[in-house]
Design goal:
Blueprint: E1 3-21, E2 24-38, E3 43-49, H1 52-55, H2 57-62, H3 65-83, H4 91-110, H5 117-123, H6 125-138, H7 144-151, E4 162-166, E5 168-169, H8 175-183, E6 188-192, H9 199-217, E7 231-235, H10 243-256, E8 262-266, E9 284-286, H11 293-301, E10 306-309, H12 311-314, H13 316-327, E11 333-335, H14 342-352, E12 364-367, H15 370-373, H16 377-382, E13 398-400, H17 403-408
Parallel strand pairs: 4-12, 5-6, 6-7, 7-8, 8-9, 9-10, 10-11
Antiparallel strand pairs: 1-2, 2-3, 4-13
């Protein structure tokens, strides 16, 4: 494959309320739009969204919200420039070729020598998605399964018919809203912990918050888990700075009866601390600390028992490579959202639908929280190329994936609607 030209644009999407985590908050996402032309004359358009606070909190805090989004969008266009006239065999090969130089450029424009690689990966979502669409055209297919069989034979072979849709419970989601989620069929809640303040203040706030949530919905029953009760996924985003503090949180969870219902504790520590987790009483998952296959292997050796894959956060290319490395070592994987617009949700959904069952659950799952946060969610949903299909919207907390979903590959290779009109190709 070879790229001969590109165009770039972006669109700002407002949120209905601040998205609070990692002790910070943002109020909008920028949707980066990339169109590319290949040497064969094919043209495709892909999108990605900015996630500055998630990918590098130091960059987020060093700039205005607009400034941080502008830096990442600048990096996205620079990646497109680097891809022009470069030869590569597949999208993952293209990302591997440009990543080292692109990351050095990212350090320069952000002024951060210790810039997290996740920031650079996040900037590559739109170019990577565009490359996958061109790769599908090159192989004369719109089948995600066909493309997986070329580069990942025998790895991502499941086809879940039901995929639980996890809402994201940030610090400011009211208890009544959480009850409504569960009343409407949600049986798996992703809860943000690691609230703002000192480490002691954070612990106290987290303990109180978890008590409130568990007291409200912890006794609800479900047929979708081995326990027969609803379950929880705690996401600390690296906010706990010591194992001792985390153990105090888990002791609190045990005291209130919540511990056995926690099936995932994600990224508890800052990755640079490299704290082993094999002795903790819960399954610990890696997320932000994963930048490459080597990181997956390293975290497994540290006792991590699950890996988070983010096609719409770290590129589909890198997510597939990391997922392969984990699954070949019998480590379960799952897909998490990055406050995605509808057309990005299905890039996540395509991978989540093909992963093995996660321990403790009786169906597949993925986090998807955009419907709770975007002001224009309904309009964005109508612009999805497969608008009207039953699998686009969860029913009683479950995405129902029929033959149409798999035959259409969730619409990821279809025209991007109004996004394509934002570029001049």
């Amino acid at each position: 494959m070879k790229i001969t030209a590109y165009d770039f644009n972006f669109e700002r999407e407002k949120l209905v309320r601040p998205f609070k985590f990692k002790g910070g908050a943002f109020t909008e996402k920028w949707i980066n739009v990339v169109s590319m032309r290949s040497a064969s004359g094919c043209v495709a358009t892909g999108i990605g969204s900015t996630a500055i606070l998630w990918s590098d909190p130091k960059v987020f805090s060093a700039h205005s919200e607009t400034g941080g989004n502008l830096l990442m969008s600048t990096l996205t266009e620079h990646a497109c420039k680097m891809l022009v006239n470069r030869e590569f065999s597949n999208p993952h090969d293209a990302i591997k070729q440009i990543f080292p130089e692109l990351h050095e450029y990212a350090k320069k424009i952000t002024g951060s020598e210790n810039l997290r690689q996740t920031f650079t990966l996040n900037s590559l979502i739109a170019p990577d998605n565009t490359l996958w669409k061109l790769y599908a055209l090159k192989n004369n297919t719109r089948s995600f399964d066909d493309l997986l069989e070329i580069d990942y034979p025998g790895i991502f072979t499941n086809k879940h018919r039901e995929l639980a849709c996890l809402p994201l419970i940030t610090y400011n989601v009211a208890i009544d809203e959480i009850r409504k989620y569960v009343d409407n069929g949600v049986f798996f809640l992703k809860i943000k912990i690691g609230q703002a303040g000192t480490q002691q203040e954070m612990l106290e706030k987290d303990c109180e918050r978890l008590s409130d949530i568990f007291n409200a919905v912890g006794d609800r029953k479900t047929a979708y888990t081995d326990l027969g009760k609803i379950v929880f996924y705690l996401d600390a985003n690296g906010r706990y700075e010591s194992k001792e503090l985390l153990i105090r949180l888990l002791e609190h969870c045990k005291k209130i009866g919540m511990l056995e219902q926690i099936i995932i504790l994600e990224e508890p520590f800052p990755e640079e601390l490299e704290i082993g987790v094999s002795d903790l009483p819960v399954r610990v998952a890696a997320d932000e600390s994963l930048h490459s296959v080597n990181d997956v292997i390293k975290r497994i050796k540290m006792g991590y028992g699950a890996m988070t894959l983010k096609p719409a956060g770290k590129t589909l290319s890198m997510s597939l490579a990391m997922g392969k490395a984990a699954l070949e070592r019998s480590i379960p994987c799952y897909v998490a959202d990055s406050a995605c617009v509808p057309q990005l949700v299905d890039w996540n959904k395509n991978l989540a639908a093909r992963l093995p069952l996660f321990p403790g659950l009786k169906c597949g799952f993925m986090e998807s929280n955009g419907a709770s946060f975007y002001e224009r969610w309904n309009e964005l949903l109508k612009d999805h190329p497969c608008y009207g299909e039953n699998w686009l919207v969860p029913q009683n907390g479950i995405f129902k994936l029929d033959n149409s979903f798999y035959n259409l590959s969730g619409g990821i290779f279809a025209n991007t609607g109004h996004y394509a009109a934002l570029t001049n190709m």
